[in-house]
Amino acid sequence: MIKNMISKALSLGALVGLTAVNVGGGDNKALLNKLVEKGTLTQAEADALLEESNAEFNSSVPSWVESLTLKGDLRLRYDHTYDSASNGNSAEDRVRYRFRFEGVADLKNNFKMGFRMATGHNMTSSNQTFSNDFTRDDFGLDQAYVGWQQEGDWEESSGFTVYVGKNPNFEKTGWKLSKALFDSDITPEGFETHYGVEMGGTTLGLHGGAYLLEGENDPDKQMSKLIMGQITTSTTLSDTLHMDLGLGAYGIDSSDLTGPDTGHGNTPGQGYTPIMLDAAFTYRGASTPVKLYGTWVDNQQADALSTGYITGVKYGSAKKAGQWEAKIEYRSFEADAFWDEFAESEFGAIGVKAANQYAVGTNTEGLVLQGKYNIYNNIQVILAWRHTEAETSVYDDESNNFFQADLIFKF
Asked: What band does 24 get if pLDDT is binned at 50, 70 and 90?
């Protein structure tokens, strides 16, 4: 009698342990069936225990857990730079990596909550170079935000959408902004809202954001602000031709900022209120899509060196296994066209800040060639070459070449 009671108690303990890790309940049933076969439990006792464990699990786990999505990626990179001799260190090789892990929970009430962890500590780069004798690398909070969508469907472009916190990059939340002006690793901190409405074959979007920046050496620790707005349209011109347009502007006073010093080229104390026009035309009439795109930017607060532009063409689309794409792009940014801290972290030149020094930011022009190929749906290879030079420099014929090879794994 006592032995039988102990056996049943141990069986119940095993069942509780399985319940804690089993969502579907199938393993619980298999265990109970085995215990019935051995005579430890009667069928009636097993049925009662199964019903009790399922009821307890269903009542203790929030429904939104079922909508929790986890994903991440690891990028392995080799890059080689070869610059003009005045750089002092004209050739350099690096092996680097980037690791990111993120989660998004749909709270089932028009809200979602997200986070992301990433290597690196720079505003415009998550790269970590293989160095420092195997010491621990930086890995910190990259995103932490709450989003609200009026219609409760995050795939829809209509209605209101709001993000608050350390938000995803601009390209992920509805803006149509060039990655050359806003590096894809930037995760802005603040508040933004988006509104979309569909009219026939056209979607009109209104976007606004207020973000906080703080000068490191500001004795009063006064919060400096970035205020930005944009109007976007996405239009189907025909069965084979699609157009995307974006007209926006932002305001920031660099004299209030002494930030992470990730960019170079701007005139000290210059204010920035650039107007940005982005346009793209995608043709899908052939077996492979072709995209023509461009960006024009002009800083309204600068009296000179205020303009920049981008023009490019992309052929193909590397989204699934066996697909590939290639692009060629030309960029030209005068020194005060936009705030250099936001610029893409891989597009720079010698002579931007000083002669014989390579730096990224504005006051740079050059060519970008890039090719992508998906080996599998979740493994991609990227090859890129950038040839750049400074818009203005004390030396003539300064040039920089940057070669890059990436292998990206996603899960």
From this structure: very low
Please give the DSSP secondary-structure letter assigned to residue 319.
-
Phi-psi region of 190 (alpha: psi -120 to 50; beta: other; left: phi over 0): left
Long-range contacts of 87-92 (CB under 8 A, 24+ apart): 87/350, 87/356, 87/357, 87/358, 87/400, 88/356
Helix or strand or coil: residue 384?
Answer: strand
The tokens describing 212, both together, are 């906080």
Distance, in Å, from the CA atom of 104 to the CA atom of 68, rounded to the nearest integer, reads 6
Using alpha carbons only, what angle is made at residue 337 by residues 332 and 339, rounded to the nearest 5 degrees?
A: 115
pTM score, two decimals?
Answer: 0.81
Residue 218: predicted pLDDT: 52
* Mean residue pLDDT across the chain: 84
Residue 20: band (very low, low, confident or very high) from pLDDT cuts 50, 70, 90: very low
Q: Is 357 helix (H, G, I), strand (E, B) or coil?
A: coil
